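Structure tokens please, single chain.
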Amino acid sequence: SLRGLILKRSPSEEAMALLKEVMLEALQRDFSSFINLWKEMGRLFLEPSNIPFLFNIAEALKRSDTVAMNEFFSLSRWLYKNTSGMQKRRATFFLARFYLFMGDTEMALGLLEGIKPLDDSERRLFAEVFLKKGDYDSSLRYLLEIKELKGEDLSMVAEIALSKKDDLSTGLFERLLRE
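Here you go.
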């Protein structure tokens, strides 16, 4: 059986490749089955050679609801500890997103300290963190740097405009409403 092949002390490359295929198929077809499979077998993939695959799994877990948040956190923490360079940066943003989701803005800010956002997704996360902290000026500054504002940004801009009641945030809110 697949389980027997995989649960051996050192699963073969073939068994690992088969399990990876099964996981990816479950991810596409039935997220709940995927989560159960990941909880049971995911630890087998926690090796540097699997880092690209693990980032794909983390992306899928990140988009889920609270059911997968513990798995997302564990995997993000492993990636943070076991990567460097741009991969570590990506894992840092995963962890910051987790802490923001959990309401721990100080921990999220601590992780992001000294990092300059490189793209709209990163700017959006910075804006969310500062908004949750109540630092509307910093949040607005990051929102204004976003090249392509999306509908999801509207609620952040609305909260800032209602709190600040200034021309800049109100103007941005009105622009987003028109688009």
